[in-house]
């Protein structure tokens, strides 16, 4: 049986976007200068890190007898602490993220994917494991994971007006990055962050907005419609809505900032006409602070 023509066209369009997205993400990642990473820690894992001398409290089972036989001392074989080196990404694929007020400016989803993939490249280069929130693509290392991440991001096709953060299968004590406009149901964001916090997950909320969503530069007669036409409002005096809209937007930002604070996360708002390098540097440093 052949695939549905519309589904095939979307798949082909996503595939044609993949190499340019990877190239842009690599270029962007290369603009960020990485210092000493310093995340490697001893603990439960499967990758060798170092040998250390036996200490008080170590059991005989912990001793690496092969290494110890080569010297006059006894050594323990330490492995890397994997849990805190796992980062899960959620990039909102909903219809509202397709919005751009200027045809020369990328939609919010393009900027969100670019930032998420670029920070993934930086993290993977630094030895981290990165994956998508949920169960489809668990955190892994290596260049192959970067390709899989970009493929998975482009394959996501959530056609609801607004996205719901994915908080399933979060690895305890790991980190997460949620990138969205967060213009939908606030209770869904609360539920996801409280669920993550209960598992010891700390992370970053990066709100991506179009400049028009920030400034509300509308006047006169206007029809405001969600991307899927599920919500619509018509007015003859759009400028009369300016103050109320700005107040509601500020309330949403304040709520996101407060939610991030009480759950141990960090919040930042990024406009698509702002320098993308600045947003990437903030995002990477925020993850550094949250480890």
Automatic annotation (TrEMBL):
Pfam family, one: DUF58
InterPro entries the record matches: DUF58
Residues in DUF58 domain copies: 50-252
Superkingdom classification of source: Bacteria
Protein name, entry field: DUF58 domain-containing protein
Source organism of the structure: Cognatishimia activa
């Amino acid at each position: 049986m052949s695939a549905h023509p519309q589904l095939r066209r979307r798949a082909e369009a996503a595939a044609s976007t993949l190499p340019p997205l990877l190239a842009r993400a690599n270029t962007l990642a290369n603009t960020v200068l990485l210092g000493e990473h310093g995340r490697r820690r001893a603990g439960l894992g499967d990758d060798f890190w170092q040998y250390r001398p036996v200490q008080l409290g170590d059991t005989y089972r912990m001793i690496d007898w092969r290494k110890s036989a080569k010297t006059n001392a006894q050594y323990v074989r330490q492995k890397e602490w994997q849990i805190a080196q796992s980062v899960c990404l959620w990039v909102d694929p909903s219809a509202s993220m397709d919005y751009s007020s200027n045809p020369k400016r990328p939609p919010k989803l393009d900027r969100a994917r670019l930032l998420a993939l670029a920070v993934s490249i930086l993290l993977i280069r630094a030895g981290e494991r990165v994956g998508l929130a949920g169960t489809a693509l668990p955190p892994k290392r290596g260049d192959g994971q970067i390709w899989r991440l970009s493929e998975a991001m482009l394959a996501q096709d959530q056609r609801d007006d607004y996205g719901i953060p994915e908080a399933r299968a979060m690895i305890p004590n790991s980190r997460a990055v949620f990138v969205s406009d967060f213009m939908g149901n606030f209770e869904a964001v609360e539920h996801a962050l409280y669920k993550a916090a209960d598992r010891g997950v700390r992370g970053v909320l990066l709100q991506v907005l179009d400049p028009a969503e920030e400034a509300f530069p509308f006047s006169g007669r206007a029809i405001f419609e969600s991307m899927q036409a599920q919500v619509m409002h018509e007015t003859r005096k759009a400028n009369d809505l300016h103050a109320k809209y700005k107040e509601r937007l500020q309330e949403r930002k304040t709520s996101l900032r407060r939610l991030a604070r009480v759950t141990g996360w960090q919040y930042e708002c990024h406009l698509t006409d702002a320098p993308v390098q600045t947003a990437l540097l903030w995002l990477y440093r925020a993850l550094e602070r949250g480890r």
